[in-house]
Automatic annotation (TrEMBL):
It comes from Pseudomonas mangiferae. Keywords: ATP-binding, Nucleotide-binding. This is YifB family Mg chelatase-like AAA ATPase. SMART domains: AAA. GO terms for molecular function: ATP binding; DNA binding. Residues 288-387 form the MCM C-terminal AAA(+) ATPase domain. Residues 394-413 are annotated as: Disordered. Belongs to the Mg-chelatase subunits D/I family. ComM subfamily. SUPFAM superfamilies: P-loop containing nucleoside triphosphate hydrolases, Ribosomal protein S5 domain 2-like.
Amino acid sequence: MSLAIVHSRAQLGVEAPAVTVEAHLANGLPSLALVGLPETAVKESKDRVRSAILNSGFDFPPRRITLNLAPADLPKDGGRFDLAIALGILAASGQVPADALDGIECLGELALSGAVRPVQGVLPAALAARAAGRALVVPRANAEEACLASGLRVLAIEHLLELAAHLSGQTPLAPYQAHGLPSQPRPYPDLADVQGQQAAKRALLVAAAGAHNLLLSGPPGTGKTLLASRLPGLLPPLDEHEALEVAAIHSVVSHAPLDTWPQRPFRQPHHSASGPALVGGGSRPRPGEITLAHQGVLFLDELPEFDRKVLEVLREPLESGEIVIARAHDKVRFPARFQLVAAMNPCPCGYLGDAGGRCQCTPDRIQRYRAKLSGPLLDRIDLHLTVAREATALQPSAGDGPSSAEAAAHVADARQRQLARQGRANAFLDLDGVRRHCALEEDDRRWLEKACERLGMSLRAAHRVLKVARSLADLEARPRLARHHLAEALQYRPGGAA
Protein backbone atom coordinates (compact mmCIF):
# COMPACT_ATOMS: atom_id res chain seq x y z
CA MET A 1 0.00 0.00 0.00
CA SER A 2 1.51 3.35 -1.05
CA LEU A 3 -0.81 5.48 1.13
CA ALA A 4 -1.03 5.37 4.94
CA ILE A 5 -2.91 7.51 7.46
CA VAL A 6 -1.80 8.03 11.06
CA HIS A 7 -3.69 10.03 13.69
CA SER A 8 -1.98 12.54 15.96
CA ARG A 9 -2.73 15.74 17.90
CA ALA A 10 -1.49 19.32 17.62
CA GLN A 11 -1.27 21.81 20.46
CA LEU A 12 -3.36 25.00 20.27
CA GLY A 13 -3.49 26.80 23.58
CA VAL A 14 -4.74 24.20 26.04
CA GLU A 15 -6.59 22.27 23.36
CA ALA A 16 -5.39 19.36 21.21
CA PRO A 17 -7.01 19.49 17.76
CA ALA A 18 -6.81 16.34 15.66
CA VAL A 19 -4.12 16.11 12.98
CA THR A 20 -4.09 13.43 10.27
CA VAL A 21 -0.62 12.51 8.99
CA GLU A 22 -0.93 11.20 5.42
CA ALA A 23 2.09 9.47 3.87
CA HIS A 24 2.12 8.74 0.11
CA LEU A 25 4.83 6.97 -1.87
CA ALA A 26 5.05 7.56 -5.62
CA ASN A 27 7.46 6.71 -8.40
CA GLY A 28 10.10 9.28 -9.25
CA LEU A 29 13.40 10.59 -8.01
CA PRO A 30 13.88 10.00 -4.25
CA SER A 31 12.61 13.02 -2.31
CA LEU A 32 10.58 13.91 0.74
CA ALA A 33 8.08 16.79 0.78
CA LEU A 34 6.34 17.88 3.99
CA VAL A 35 3.21 20.04 3.62
CA GLY A 36 0.40 21.19 5.89
CA LEU A 37 1.68 24.45 7.44
CA PRO A 38 4.64 22.96 9.36
CA GLU A 39 6.86 25.28 11.36
CA THR A 40 10.64 24.94 11.57
CA ALA A 41 10.77 22.17 14.18
CA VAL A 42 8.32 20.08 12.14
CA LYS A 43 10.24 20.63 8.91
CA GLU A 44 13.39 19.41 10.62
CA SER A 45 11.61 16.18 11.50
CA LYS A 46 12.40 14.87 7.99
CA ASP A 47 16.06 14.36 8.93
CA ARG A 48 15.27 12.98 12.39
CA VAL A 49 12.76 10.49 10.98
CA ARG A 50 15.11 9.31 8.22
CA SER A 51 17.91 8.57 10.69
CA ALA A 52 15.54 6.97 13.20
CA ILE A 53 14.11 4.60 10.56
CA LEU A 54 17.53 3.57 9.27
CA ASN A 55 19.06 3.15 12.74
CA SER A 56 16.10 1.00 13.78
CA GLY A 57 16.89 -1.51 11.03
CA PHE A 58 14.12 -0.54 8.61
CA ASP A 59 14.51 0.49 4.99
CA PHE A 60 13.92 4.12 4.09
CA PRO A 61 11.99 3.89 0.78
CA PRO A 62 13.99 5.39 -2.15
CA ARG A 63 10.86 6.88 -3.68
CA ARG A 64 9.07 10.22 -3.93
CA ILE A 65 7.50 10.65 -0.47
CA THR A 66 4.79 13.22 0.24
CA LEU A 67 3.74 13.85 3.81
CA ASN A 68 0.60 15.90 4.46
CA LEU A 69 -0.38 17.15 7.92
CA ALA A 70 -4.09 17.90 7.75
CA PRO A 71 -5.92 20.19 8.27
CA ALA A 72 -3.70 22.42 6.17
CA ASP A 73 -4.74 25.69 7.86
CA LEU A 74 -3.73 24.58 11.38
CA PRO A 75 -0.17 25.55 12.35
CA LYS A 76 1.95 22.60 13.51
CA ASP A 77 5.04 23.00 15.63
CA GLY A 78 7.37 20.98 17.83
CA GLY A 79 8.66 17.44 17.47
CA ARG A 80 5.41 15.77 18.57
CA PHE A 81 4.65 14.52 15.03
CA ASP A 82 7.94 12.61 14.53
CA LEU A 83 6.53 9.26 15.63
CA ALA A 84 3.40 9.60 13.48
CA ILE A 85 5.46 10.61 10.44
CA ALA A 86 7.83 7.65 10.84
CA LEU A 87 4.91 5.31 11.31
CA GLY A 88 3.22 6.66 8.18
CA ILE A 89 6.33 6.05 6.06
CA LEU A 90 6.75 2.53 7.42
CA ALA A 91 3.07 1.70 6.81
CA ALA A 92 3.03 3.21 3.30
CA SER A 93 6.13 1.16 2.40
CA GLY A 94 4.57 -2.04 3.77
CA GLN A 95 7.02 -2.52 6.65
CA VAL A 96 4.22 -2.37 9.24
CA PRO A 97 0.55 -3.23 8.64
CA ALA A 98 -1.46 -0.12 7.77
CA ASP A 99 -4.76 -1.55 9.00
CA ALA A 100 -3.41 -1.60 12.59
CA LEU A 101 -3.23 2.21 12.65
CA ASP A 102 -6.96 2.94 12.73
CA GLY A 103 -7.52 2.73 16.48
CA ILE A 104 -4.44 4.59 17.76
CA GLU A 105 -3.07 8.11 18.00
CA CYS A 106 0.66 8.83 18.26
CA LEU A 107 2.72 11.49 19.99
CA GLY A 108 6.49 11.56 20.41
CA GLU A 109 9.76 13.06 19.27
CA LEU A 110 12.33 10.74 17.73
CA ALA A 111 16.02 10.66 18.47
CA LEU A 112 18.38 9.75 15.62
CA SER A 113 18.74 6.29 17.16
CA GLY A 114 14.99 5.66 17.05
CA ALA A 115 14.47 6.29 20.76
CA VAL A 116 11.28 8.16 21.63
CA ARG A 117 11.59 11.37 23.64
CA PRO A 118 8.86 13.06 25.76
CA VAL A 119 6.85 16.02 24.50
CA GLN A 120 4.73 18.72 26.10
CA GLY A 121 0.94 18.93 26.10
CA VAL A 122 0.25 15.20 26.43
CA LEU A 123 -2.68 15.48 28.84
CA PRO A 124 -4.91 17.61 26.54
CA ALA A 125 -4.14 15.12 23.74
CA ALA A 126 -5.00 12.22 26.07
CA LEU A 127 -8.36 13.75 26.96
CA ALA A 128 -9.12 14.34 23.27
CA ALA A 129 -8.05 10.78 22.32
CA ARG A 130 -10.32 9.38 25.02
CA ALA A 131 -13.23 11.39 23.63
CA ALA A 132 -12.43 10.07 20.12
CA GLY A 133 -12.36 6.47 21.37
CA ARG A 134 -8.77 5.71 20.33
CA ALA A 135 -5.75 4.42 22.21
CA LEU A 136 -2.81 6.79 22.66
CA VAL A 137 0.83 5.89 21.99
CA VAL A 138 3.18 8.11 24.01
CA PRO A 139 6.81 8.10 25.18
CA ARG A 140 7.22 6.19 28.43
CA ALA A 141 8.21 9.40 30.20
CA ASN A 142 4.75 10.83 29.40
CA ALA A 143 2.76 7.71 30.29
CA GLU A 144 1.90 8.65 33.87
CA GLU A 145 0.61 12.01 32.68
CA ALA A 146 -1.51 10.42 29.94
CA CYS A 147 -3.02 8.02 32.48
CA LEU A 148 -4.61 10.97 34.29
CA ALA A 149 -7.31 10.66 31.61
CA SER A 150 -9.05 7.73 33.27
CA GLY A 151 -10.46 5.12 30.91
CA LEU A 152 -7.91 5.82 28.17
CA ARG A 153 -5.86 2.93 26.79
CA VAL A 154 -2.25 4.14 26.94
CA LEU A 155 0.61 2.40 25.13
CA ALA A 156 4.01 3.52 26.40
CA ILE A 157 7.14 3.00 24.32
CA GLU A 158 10.81 3.88 24.54
CA HIS A 159 11.83 3.02 20.98
CA LEU A 160 10.30 2.96 17.51
CA LEU A 161 11.00 -0.79 17.31
CA GLU A 162 8.60 -1.47 20.20
CA LEU A 163 5.69 0.13 18.36
CA ALA A 164 6.56 -1.62 15.09
CA ALA A 165 6.66 -5.00 16.85
CA HIS A 166 3.30 -4.27 18.48
CA LEU A 167 1.60 -3.30 15.22
CA SER A 168 3.06 -6.34 13.46
CA GLY A 169 1.72 -8.61 16.20
CA GLN A 170 5.19 -9.89 17.14
CA THR A 171 5.33 -8.39 20.66
CA PRO A 172 1.99 -6.83 21.65
CA LEU A 173 2.19 -4.01 24.15
CA ALA A 174 0.11 -4.25 27.32
CA PRO A 175 -1.80 -1.10 28.29
CA TYR A 176 0.30 0.99 30.63
CA GLN A 177 -0.71 0.70 34.28
CA ALA A 178 -0.29 3.96 36.16
CA HIS A 179 1.59 3.81 39.42
CA GLY A 180 2.84 6.38 41.81
CA LEU A 181 0.16 8.99 41.12
CA PRO A 182 -0.11 11.16 44.23
CA SER A 183 -3.44 10.68 45.98
CA GLN A 184 -3.04 13.60 48.37
CA PRO A 185 -1.67 17.08 47.63
CA ARG A 186 1.26 18.44 49.54
CA PRO A 187 0.17 20.23 52.73
CA TYR A 188 -0.44 23.96 52.54
CA PRO A 189 0.92 26.39 55.16
CA ASP A 190 -1.28 26.43 58.25
CA LEU A 191 -3.45 29.41 59.10
CA ALA A 192 -2.74 28.87 62.79
CA ASP A 193 0.87 29.93 62.17
CA VAL A 194 -0.28 33.52 61.56
CA GLN A 195 -0.02 35.48 64.78
CA GLY A 196 -3.02 37.65 65.63
CA GLN A 197 -4.78 39.38 62.71
CA GLN A 198 -8.20 38.01 63.62
CA ALA A 199 -10.02 40.45 61.35
CA ALA A 200 -7.81 39.47 58.40
CA LYS A 201 -8.37 35.77 59.13
CA ARG A 202 -12.11 36.40 59.14
CA ALA A 203 -11.86 38.14 55.75
CA LEU A 204 -9.80 35.23 54.44
CA LEU A 205 -12.50 32.80 55.59
CA VAL A 206 -15.21 34.83 53.83
CA ALA A 207 -13.12 35.07 50.67
CA ALA A 208 -12.61 31.31 50.62
CA ALA A 209 -16.27 30.57 51.32
CA GLY A 210 -17.56 32.56 48.36
CA ALA A 211 -14.50 32.65 46.05
CA HIS A 212 -14.28 36.41 46.50
CA ASN A 213 -11.34 38.59 45.49
CA LEU A 214 -9.43 40.21 48.35
CA LEU A 215 -7.24 43.31 48.76
CA LEU A 216 -5.03 43.60 51.86
CA SER A 217 -3.61 47.02 52.69
CA GLY A 218 -1.19 47.71 55.50
CA PRO A 219 2.36 48.62 56.47
CA PRO A 220 5.30 46.28 55.84
CA GLY A 221 5.66 43.27 58.11
CA THR A 222 2.01 42.92 59.12
CA GLY A 223 1.61 39.48 57.52
CA LYS A 224 -0.14 40.24 54.21
CA THR A 225 1.92 37.74 52.22
CA LEU A 226 1.66 35.21 55.05
CA LEU A 227 -2.14 35.49 55.00
CA ALA A 228 -2.38 35.24 51.21
CA SER A 229 -0.31 32.04 51.14
CA ARG A 230 -2.81 30.40 53.50
CA LEU A 231 -5.83 30.93 51.25
CA PRO A 232 -5.32 27.85 48.97
CA GLY A 233 -5.38 25.63 52.07
CA LEU A 234 -8.85 26.92 52.96
CA LEU A 235 -10.41 26.22 49.57
CA PRO A 236 -12.34 23.01 48.88
CA PRO A 237 -10.34 20.21 47.18
CA LEU A 238 -10.41 20.10 43.39
CA ASP A 239 -12.83 17.64 41.87
CA GLU A 240 -11.61 15.42 39.04
CA HIS A 241 -12.76 17.77 36.27
CA GLU A 242 -11.12 20.80 37.87
CA ALA A 243 -7.92 18.88 38.60
CA LEU A 244 -7.70 17.75 34.97
CA GLU A 245 -8.18 21.35 33.81
CA VAL A 246 -5.31 22.53 36.01
CA ALA A 247 -3.06 19.62 35.00
CA ALA A 248 -3.80 20.18 31.29
CA ILE A 249 -2.70 23.81 31.58
CA HIS A 250 0.56 22.87 33.26
CA SER A 251 1.05 20.08 30.73
CA VAL A 252 1.39 22.56 27.86
CA VAL A 253 3.88 24.65 29.85
CA SER A 254 6.10 21.95 31.36
CA HIS A 255 6.67 18.20 31.18
CA ALA A 256 5.54 17.48 34.75
CA PRO A 257 1.98 18.45 35.74
CA LEU A 258 2.11 15.57 38.23
CA ASP A 259 4.29 17.56 40.63
CA THR A 260 1.30 19.44 42.03
CA TRP A 261 -1.52 16.97 41.30
CA PRO A 262 -4.24 17.50 42.47
CA GLN A 263 -3.37 20.77 44.22
CA ARG A 264 -4.84 24.22 43.71
CA PRO A 265 -2.19 26.50 42.18
CA PHE A 266 -0.79 29.52 43.98
CA ARG A 267 0.94 31.95 41.62
CA GLN A 268 2.91 34.98 42.79
CA PRO A 269 4.35 36.91 39.82
CA HIS A 270 6.80 39.75 40.47
CA HIS A 271 5.53 43.28 39.99
CA SER A 272 7.93 43.73 37.06
CA ALA A 273 5.98 41.10 35.05
CA SER A 274 4.97 42.22 31.56
CA GLY A 275 1.50 42.02 30.10
CA PRO A 276 2.12 38.80 28.13
CA ALA A 277 3.74 37.21 31.20
CA LEU A 278 0.66 37.98 33.28
CA VAL A 279 -2.19 37.32 30.84
CA GLY A 280 -0.48 35.22 28.16
CA GLY A 281 0.58 35.95 24.62
CA GLY A 282 3.47 35.74 22.24
CA SER A 283 3.60 35.00 18.52
CA ARG A 284 2.63 31.46 19.47
CA PRO A 285 0.23 32.20 22.36
CA ARG A 286 1.14 30.57 25.64
CA PRO A 287 -0.66 30.71 29.00
CA GLY A 288 0.18 33.55 31.36
CA GLU A 289 0.09 33.72 35.14
CA ILE A 290 -3.68 34.19 35.30
CA THR A 291 -4.19 30.93 33.39
CA LEU A 292 -1.57 29.11 35.47
CA ALA A 293 -3.61 30.26 38.50
CA HIS A 294 -6.83 28.78 37.06
CA GLN A 295 -8.91 27.15 39.85
CA GLY A 296 -6.44 28.59 42.35
CA VAL A 297 -5.07 31.84 43.74
CA LEU A 298 -3.24 34.67 41.98
CA PHE A 299 -1.36 36.77 44.52
CA LEU A 300 -0.17 40.20 43.40
CA ASP A 301 2.09 41.71 46.04
CA GLU A 302 2.90 45.43 45.89
CA LEU A 303 -0.11 45.95 43.63
CA PRO A 304 0.52 49.65 42.78
CA GLU A 305 4.03 48.77 41.56
CA PHE A 306 2.58 46.77 38.63
CA ASP A 307 2.30 48.64 35.36
CA ARG A 308 -1.20 50.11 35.17
CA LYS A 309 -1.75 48.87 31.61
CA VAL A 310 -0.89 45.37 32.78
CA LEU A 311 -3.38 45.53 35.65
CA GLU A 312 -6.17 46.84 33.43
CA VAL A 313 -6.02 43.66 31.36
CA LEU A 314 -7.21 41.78 34.45
CA ARG A 315 -10.62 43.43 34.37
CA GLU A 316 -12.14 41.16 31.71
CA PRO A 317 -10.92 37.79 33.05
CA LEU A 318 -12.03 38.78 36.56
CA GLU A 319 -15.55 38.98 35.16
CA SER A 320 -15.59 36.25 32.50
CA GLY A 321 -13.15 33.67 33.90
CA GLU A 322 -11.21 33.42 30.63
CA ILE A 323 -8.81 35.37 28.44
CA VAL A 324 -8.82 35.51 24.65
CA ILE A 325 -5.48 36.11 22.89
CA ALA A 326 -6.15 37.40 19.38
CA ARG A 327 -3.57 37.11 16.62
CA ALA A 328 -3.73 37.85 12.91
CA HIS A 329 -4.65 34.31 11.88
CA ASP A 330 -6.26 32.84 14.98
CA LYS A 331 -7.71 33.35 18.45
CA VAL A 332 -6.69 31.26 21.42
CA ARG A 333 -8.92 31.04 24.46
CA PHE A 334 -7.34 30.28 27.85
CA PRO A 335 -9.30 29.56 31.04
CA ALA A 336 -8.62 32.05 33.85
CA ARG A 337 -11.06 31.39 36.69
CA PHE A 338 -8.72 32.48 39.47
CA GLN A 339 -9.20 34.09 42.86
CA LEU A 340 -7.29 37.36 43.12
CA VAL A 341 -5.55 38.29 46.35
CA ALA A 342 -3.64 41.58 46.22
CA ALA A 343 -1.53 43.40 48.79
CA MET A 344 -0.37 47.00 48.95
CA ASN A 345 1.07 49.56 51.32
CA PRO A 346 -1.02 52.57 52.37
CA CYS A 347 1.56 54.99 50.96
CA PRO A 348 4.89 54.91 49.06
CA CYS A 349 6.98 54.48 52.22
CA GLY A 350 4.43 52.10 53.72
CA TYR A 351 4.01 53.74 57.13
CA LEU A 352 1.01 56.03 56.73
CA GLY A 353 -0.87 56.14 60.03
CA ASP A 354 2.00 54.57 61.96
CA ALA A 355 1.94 55.59 65.62
CA GLY A 356 5.67 56.29 65.54
CA GLY A 357 5.25 59.01 62.92
CA ARG A 358 7.67 57.37 60.48
CA CYS A 359 5.69 58.36 57.38
CA GLN A 360 7.14 61.38 55.56
CA CYS A 361 4.98 61.12 52.43
CA THR A 362 3.22 64.27 51.26
CA PRO A 363 -0.51 64.14 50.41
CA ASP A 364 0.40 64.62 46.75
CA ARG A 365 2.71 61.58 46.75
CA ILE A 366 0.09 59.48 48.50
CA GLN A 367 -2.53 60.52 45.95
CA ARG A 368 -0.25 59.67 43.01
CA TYR A 369 0.56 56.30 44.59
CA ARG A 370 -3.07 55.34 45.05
CA ALA A 371 -4.04 56.69 41.61
CA LYS A 372 -1.98 53.91 40.02
CA LEU A 373 -4.98 51.66 40.68
CA SER A 374 -8.06 52.41 38.61
CA GLY A 375 -11.55 52.58 40.07
CA PRO A 376 -12.96 49.89 37.75
CA LEU A 377 -10.28 47.43 38.87
CA LEU A 378 -10.82 48.14 42.58
CA ASP A 379 -14.56 47.87 42.01
CA ARG A 380 -14.07 44.23 40.98
CA ILE A 381 -12.41 43.33 44.29
CA ASP A 382 -15.08 42.25 46.76
CA LEU A 383 -13.18 42.51 50.04
CA HIS A 384 -10.97 45.46 51.00
CA LEU A 385 -9.25 45.13 54.36
CA THR A 386 -6.70 47.18 56.27
CA VAL A 387 -4.18 44.96 58.05
CA ALA A 388 -2.94 46.75 61.16
CA ARG A 389 0.32 46.15 62.98
CA GLU A 390 0.08 43.64 65.84
CA ALA A 391 1.90 43.87 69.16
CA THR A 392 5.29 42.16 69.05
CA ALA A 393 5.27 38.70 70.65
CA LEU A 394 8.22 36.49 69.73
CA GLN A 395 6.69 33.51 71.52
CA PRO A 396 2.98 33.61 70.68
CA SER A 397 0.60 31.33 72.53
CA ALA A 398 -0.36 28.08 70.83
CA GLY A 399 -3.67 27.83 68.99
CA ASP A 400 -3.88 31.45 67.84
CA GLY A 401 -7.14 31.13 65.95
CA PRO A 402 -8.46 28.23 63.86
CA SER A 403 -6.15 25.93 61.97
CA SER A 404 -6.38 25.59 58.20
CA ALA A 405 -8.12 22.23 58.59
CA GLU A 406 -10.81 23.69 60.87
CA ALA A 407 -11.36 26.72 58.64
CA ALA A 408 -11.40 24.55 55.50
CA ALA A 409 -14.15 22.37 56.97
CA HIS A 410 -16.21 25.49 57.66
CA VAL A 411 -15.59 26.74 54.13
CA ALA A 412 -16.47 23.37 52.61
CA ASP A 413 -19.87 23.40 54.36
CA ALA A 414 -20.61 26.91 53.09
CA ARG A 415 -19.46 26.08 49.56
CA GLN A 416 -21.60 22.93 49.54
CA ARG A 417 -24.66 25.00 50.37
CA GLN A 418 -23.91 27.28 47.44
CA LEU A 419 -23.47 24.41 45.00
CA ALA A 420 -26.70 22.78 46.15
CA ARG A 421 -28.61 26.05 45.89
CA GLN A 422 -27.23 27.64 42.73
CA GLY A 423 -24.57 25.35 41.27
CA ARG A 424 -21.66 27.80 41.68
CA ALA A 425 -19.80 29.91 44.22
CA ASN A 426 -21.41 33.18 45.27
CA ALA A 427 -18.74 35.31 43.58
CA PHE A 428 -19.80 33.91 40.18
CA LEU A 429 -23.52 34.68 40.50
CA ASP A 430 -24.93 36.60 37.55
CA LEU A 431 -27.56 39.32 37.85
CA ASP A 432 -30.44 36.85 37.82
CA GLY A 433 -28.70 34.76 40.48
CA VAL A 434 -28.25 37.80 42.72
CA ARG A 435 -31.96 38.60 42.44
CA ARG A 436 -33.01 35.03 43.21
CA HIS A 437 -30.55 34.06 45.95
CA CYS A 438 -29.76 37.40 47.63
CA ALA A 439 -33.30 38.62 48.23
CA LEU A 440 -33.81 41.09 51.09
CA GLU A 441 -36.64 42.15 53.31
CA GLU A 442 -38.06 45.52 52.30
CA ASP A 443 -36.57 47.36 55.30
CA ASP A 444 -33.15 45.81 54.71
CA ARG A 445 -33.31 46.70 51.02
CA ARG A 446 -34.01 50.38 51.78
CA TRP A 447 -31.27 50.40 54.42
CA LEU A 448 -28.72 48.97 51.97
CA GLU A 449 -29.73 51.39 49.20
CA LYS A 450 -29.19 54.37 51.53
CA ALA A 451 -25.83 52.98 52.68
CA CYS A 452 -24.64 52.44 49.10
CA GLU A 453 -25.80 55.93 48.14
CA ARG A 454 -23.96 57.47 51.07
CA LEU A 455 -20.76 55.58 50.17
CA GLY A 456 -21.06 56.45 46.47
CA MET A 457 -21.10 52.82 45.34
CA SER A 458 -21.78 51.72 41.80
CA LEU A 459 -24.52 49.20 41.09
CA ARG A 460 -21.84 46.57 40.46
CA ALA A 461 -20.32 47.28 43.88
CA ALA A 462 -23.76 46.99 45.49
CA HIS A 463 -24.25 43.59 43.86
CA ARG A 464 -20.86 42.50 45.17
CA VAL A 465 -21.92 43.56 48.67
CA LEU A 466 -24.93 41.27 48.32
CA LYS A 467 -22.71 38.37 47.17
CA VAL A 468 -20.41 38.82 50.17
CA ALA A 469 -23.42 39.02 52.48
CA ARG A 470 -24.69 35.79 50.93
CA SER A 471 -21.36 34.13 51.77
CA LEU A 472 -21.56 35.40 55.34
CA ALA A 473 -25.05 33.91 55.65
CA ASP A 474 -23.80 30.60 54.22
CA LEU A 475 -21.05 30.48 56.83
CA GLU A 476 -23.78 30.73 59.46
CA ALA A 477 -26.06 28.29 57.59
CA ARG A 478 -28.74 30.99 57.35
CA PRO A 479 -31.22 30.66 54.45
CA ARG A 480 -31.84 34.42 54.19
CA LEU A 481 -29.68 37.52 54.49
CA ALA A 482 -29.94 39.50 57.70
CA ARG A 483 -29.05 43.10 58.51
CA HIS A 484 -25.81 42.13 60.26
CA HIS A 485 -24.66 40.25 57.14
CA LEU A 486 -25.14 43.40 55.08
CA ALA A 487 -23.39 45.53 57.68
CA GLU A 488 -20.34 43.28 57.76
CA ALA A 489 -20.23 43.08 53.96
CA LEU A 490 -20.26 46.89 53.77
CA GLN A 491 -17.29 46.99 56.12
CA TYR A 492 -15.25 45.29 53.41
CA ARG A 493 -15.85 48.06 50.85
CA PRO A 494 -13.60 51.17 50.59
CA GLY A 495 -15.00 53.73 53.04
CA GLY A 496 -17.37 51.17 54.52
CA ALA A 497 -15.74 51.37 57.94
CA ALA A 498 -16.19 55.10 58.16
